[in-house]
Design brief:
The structure holds 2 protein chains of 2 kinds. By secondary structure, chain A is mainly α. Chain A has 10 helices and 2 strands. Classes of the chains: A mainly alpha, B mainly alpha.
Amino acid sequence: MKKYLAITKIEMSRQLTHRFNVASYRAGNLLEVLIPLIIWTVAFRSTEVIKGYTYDEMITYVIVGWLILYLTASYGFERVLALLIYDGTLSQFITKPISFLRYAFTLGFSRSLLAIFLSLIIQAGAIFIAREHIVFRAGPTDTLMLILMVALAVVIRLFYSILISLAAFWTDEISGVDFTASSIIKFFSGAFFPVNLLPSFFMNLSRPSDNVIGRAKLKCHS
Amino acid sequence: MRKYFTIAKLKTQVELSHRANVFAYIGGNMLDFFVQVIIWTAIFSSVDIVGGYTKPEMITYVVVGWIFMYLSTNYGYEEYIKKDIHEGKLSGYLIKPVNYLSYISFHSIGRLLFAFSVILAQALFFIVFFRQTLIFSLSPAGFAMFILMFIFSYAIKFSLAIIIGFISFWAADINGLYFALNILNRFLSGAFFPIAFLPPLFAKISYFFPFIYTYFLPIQFYLGKNSLTEGMLIIAGQLAWIVALYLIIKFIWKRGLMKFEGTGI
């Protein structure tokens, strides 16, 4: 266990060394949250309800939704793992007394810690600014379940990333696969818009998938 | 000049050998498009006009904008330049009788050609799919000007990519900066929504950046919201930005070379 803690510590130090880079990503994330906020604000100027959502519900959906998305994001972990396969570093894990999958899991979790911390600050700021429009009807049990869902979503997302990166065993470029897989996850998880805006066929498609992210977001409004 | 055409040709062949990767981007690109169409369709099911745009205008804005954006994109050249600098490959170009800026420009054209044909095929599909809603309003002269705007838009975006890539002379990792600037670019260019949706102050600020010339203004021209004379002004603005960005590139290149240590040789 101690060796995995060492991985966390080393990765955290590395992330702090590249703190400007991590902060730059979060600045981009802030703009990403602003985009749907602007679109929905303009749209709700002409009407009070769109597809069953009021303005306050939609603002809550966007802010809480993106918060969950950032908590469960992979932060480009697929490419980091793929690089281990490409440049042969993987051989070291085969000859050393360490499980590659456990290493990957620990690394993936550790490299997200600083990003998650910064995202929490950004979203807390967004929630504060939009506090008059935030709807939170969930009771203590619902809140606990939501936290559990997010925790499990983090695990699912890490497994997704490891799975995508393993494509590097067969192909010498995974950026395209990674891009499309990430887009599919965002699309069907409801990151861009509530899933019930989709035609019923696509809604049914998204249900059996393991995208807890989207379900957690919908839970916020129930 | 011949050597640069060879570079473009070689890069096209490399891209063709990685064709599976190029095809793998199709799904993500298409979802990028459908996200916007779904959002606007949902919004227009409750209202007739949003921010001065009717549904056909907005769908045209999204469809033509998507085609315009993906045809004029440079597919992450910042990353490519970063690698050249960080891995010391740049040294190889400095001692050879080749101009790095010309090399990288022709290299990008070679990289673009295959992706360009894939995007054109997708574009055709979208145009056929939305033919009932799309607005086709350009005169032949307007269409010629629109093509010119597209070429200059590519030049502006590529120049910005070079500038971001050159930051690698000073920074160890530019991925975060690249990501943030890319979002800012799409935000201020109108790729996510028309600039008119922004509060007036921000809309005015966006006119002081080159981004607006790479999406919003050309698409406004396409939609017939600008006259031919105004279209000429847009082209003049694009040309002015290309010259300004070229001068900035030259300046950073000279300063960057003083900093360059050839690490990785």
